[in-house]
Every structure is written in C-alpha cells, then in structure tokens.
Amino acid sequence: MIHPGKFNRLSVVKLVNFGVFLDGGEAGNILLPKRYVPANTELNDVLDVFLYYDSEDQLIATTEKPKVELGQCAWLKVTDVNNTGAFLDWGLPKDLLVPYAEQHTPMQVGKSYVVYVYRDSASRRLVASSRLNRHLSEQSHYFKPQQPVDLLICGHSDMGYKAVINHTHLGLIFRDDAFKPLRYGAKLKGYIKSIRDDQKINVSLQLPAAAQRQELTEQIVAHLKANGGKSRLTDKSAPDDIYHQYNVSKANYKKALGKLYKEKRINLGKDEITLLES
Predict the structure, then answer these.
(1) Are residues 167 and 224 located together in one domain of the fold?
(2) What's the domain count of the chain?
(3) Quick one: 184 and 213 in the same domain?
(4) Where would a tag sit more exposed on the chain, N or C end, judged by fewer CB atoms within 10 A?
(5) Can you say whether residue 61 is alpha, beta or left, with left for phi > 0 and alpha for psi between -120 and 50 degrees?
(6) Three-class SS string for 105-149?
(7) Do 180 and 130 share a structural domain?
(8) Which domain holds residue 15?
(9) Are residues 232 and 251 in the same domain?
(10) The domain spanning residue 130 has which CATH number?
C-alpha cells in the first residue's frame, strides 16, 4: 500500500525515455520523471521516493525531499494567493494549497506561517492548514514531565508562546520559561514541564534546575573529551553561542561550570576551559 505525502520504497517496473515507472500497487504505475532518476537505475531496483499530486492531480514521484510531509508541521512562505486559497513553497514543483477555510488569518504573499499538512477527505489532495487547533490536540494523557520533545513556535499569548509539540500537540511555554525572545517558526528542543488539571500541556526549554545541571555537566565533559580536553566556550561567552551548543541559558551554563570547577573536573581560564579528569 502506498502513502501519498510520505516517502515510499517502490520497485522500478518500466524504463522509458522520460523517466521510470514504479509499482504503485492498486494505484497503478507511478512516474518518476527522468531528472529525478538515479544514475544506472535498472528494472526491479527499489527506490525511496516521495509521492504527491502534480498540477494535473496525477500521482507522481520525486527523490527530492520536501520541507514537510503528511502529518507534520512546518514554517512555510506564501508564493501566491488566488480565488482557491494561498499557495506555499514546500520545496516541490507544485506549491502546497491552503484553502481559505483553513487559514487562521488571511494569508499574504511573501509572509510565512506555521501550517499542518493533511489529506483532504473529499478531494484526497494534500493540503495545509494554519488552523492548528483543528488538527492538533491541546490535551494529552501520555506525555510525562521532563520528557524531551521537539518544539515549533507557532504563536503567542499574554502568558507566553504557543508551540507545536512533536507535530501532534499544542502546548504553552510560559514567558518566564523562555529565557530569550522566541520567533515564529523557530525549531527548538524542549521538555514537558507539566500536564495541567485540564490535560493541557506546559512545556519548557530547560529541565528543572537540579536535573538540568546534572545532565549539562555531563554534556560539557563529553564535549571537552571530543575536542582535546579544551573549549573556548567559557562563562564569559555570548549567550547565543552557549545556547547554540547546549540549548541552555548562560546563567545555567555558568552554574554547571561552577559545579564542575568545585568538583575539580575542569579548570576555568580567561579564554578557555580545560578538562582535568582523564
């Protein structure tokens, strides 16, 4: 069974001068155009291809990787708006449609929005929606506190920032838990902070202080071991440099360095830190 909107492993069943045909099972043979066919492809070879519908609503294959797949969320730019809706650049020749009924606010050319990709039940086409709460749950019964998750910033409220969690749920990052301004469309690593009584989800960019310090100290030691026992990322380094490497605030990084220094596991120099343990 094939899965439009996702990568599929399909066998080559016919070679033609404009590409190859792949075995789509009940969907019939599916064309992989010549420009996407790997060199030296032969009959019965198995290829990893992404399936989508072209401008004539015919199922077609590509080896290109789109910016988003079915059942996922992404930050995409609007390339055109017409009577049908807005069209987004998702990295494939045919842009991705967002029907007017699925636009949280009217979309404008040149602007980007966080959208969810789904398959329309009536037309069976792949389309997108910025009405995220129609497609993603705001409640959870299986996330656990301190569980690592992937976050995509999708909005804000008086309390903080709204985020997509693992492409499946919506949660809230309280303003106090965001130690720096967060931009729409930013992809971040985070943690489940708590599940409220109404089953809505609070998320954080950091673990609780004690748990985070223990994890962070080991990350710092591992980084030092992998880089000859030295690092120029000190307690004087820029917050953005620290966040880029460890995904934590400068304040928490300094506390972790202090812990390692007290344990005599590192030496703190002016321009670098040095691992003392073997």
Answers:
(1) no
(2) 4
(3) no
(4) C
(5) beta
(6) CCCCCCCEEEEEEEECCCCCCEEEECCHHHCCECECCCCCCCCEE
(7) no
(8) 7-62
(9) yes
(10) 2.40.50.140
CA–CA separation, 138 and 28 (whole Å): 39
Residue 207, pLDDT > 60, answer yes
Is 270 inside a domain boundary?
yes
Q: Among the three residues 26, 41, 62, which one is the final residue of a domain in this structure?
A: 62
Buried b (16+ CB within 10 A) or exposed e, 122-148: eeebbbbbbebeebbebebeebeeeee
At 208, the pLDDT band (50, 70, 90 cuts) reads low
Query: Does the pLDDT at position 180 exceed 80?
Result: no
Q: What is the pLDDT of residues 64-120, one digit of tens each?
A: 999 999 999 999 999 999 999 999 999 998 999 999 999 999 999 999 999 999 998
Give the DSSP per-residue string, 67-86.
Answer: S--TT-EEEEEEEEE-SSEE
Beta strands in 141-206 (DSSP E): 148-156, 160-165, 169-174, 187-195, 201-204
* Band of pLDDT at residue 172, cut at 50, 70 and 90: very high
- Directed axis angle between helix 239-246 and helix 209-226, to 10°? 90
* pTM given for the model: 0.76
State the amino acid at position 178 in one-letter form. A
91 and 126 co-located in one domain: yes
Of the chain, the end-to-end C-alpha distance in Å amounts to: 54
